[in-house]
Amino acid sequence: MPKIGLLVHIEAKPEYAGEVESALRGARQLADEEKGTVTWFAFRQSATVFGVFDTFDDEQGRTAHLEGQVAAALGEIAKTMLASAPTISEVDLLGVKVP
User: Fold this and answer.
1) Is the pLDDT of residue 75 over 90?
2) Fewer CB within 10 Å: N-end or C-end of the chain?
3) Vertex 38 angle, CA 37 and 44, to 5°
4) pTM of the model
5) Are 50 and 44 in contact (CB under 8 A)?
């Protein structure tokens, strides 16, 4: 069972919201390739606000993810498409239900 996670808040510039959505949809393939990433969710909260929630079994997995291709891709779009830098919060999971 995953024990830790990341919650990422992403706000796109209005004119780039569609491109940010596409980038997040495409990032799933990158997340699939990360052995230490247990689950990965990208979501939209409003026209310009997006988020990512992912889980890991241990700190090594979380660190690898933060240093991996998904984070690099987010860093690239942050340069031009985001209203502000993404907010990344580390979380401890208190309960998990998986199928």
Assistant:
1) yes
2) C
3) 85
4) 0.93
5) yes
